Amino acid sequence: MKPYPEAYIEYLLYFHAQRDYFECHEVMEEFWKEHPGDARSRTYVALIQIAVGMYHIRRGNRNGAVKMLQSAGRNAEAPYVLSLGLDPDKLQELLNQVWSSIERDEFLYQDINLPITDPELIDFCIKECERRGLKWQAPSLMEDELLIQKHTRRDRSEVINERARQQQIRMEKGGAR
């Protein structure tokens, strides 16, 4: 198997086994922040947005889901998606299919699986799931309120303070939005 970032492997396990999209987001965001010069930076953002979109869908926040999935599609740069063992065309197709079905009010929640093309990566993830007592591509436990509402229980003060700081910087530069 070609080398992949450890955080990316964790992301895949949360995404495809535990269906814990909040943890997907947390793991990938931390990695992204720690590697600001990485060429795959926008693609890491796309992965974060896919996870955020999925937890918005699961909670019924349709507008938030569409916004995240559309943005993920724009950020998922094909060469870098491919370098992470994913099929860029199938990923775009999947994202387009999900967000457009939400907009048409035709989407009933269902888990999605990222289009992994590297058989060694899939094999590694399956074995790692078995080692952890998890099942690869297990369905979401929709009755698990802790899982479904997890992101609403976190401390958001750091995020709120950073947004306010960025807004203040924009205002001082005369570009208030």
From TrEMBL:
InterPro entries assigned: DUF309, TTHA0068_sf
Entry superkingdom: Bacteria
Disordered: annotated segments: 158-177
One Pfam family here: DUF309
Descriptive protein name: DUF309 domain-containing protein
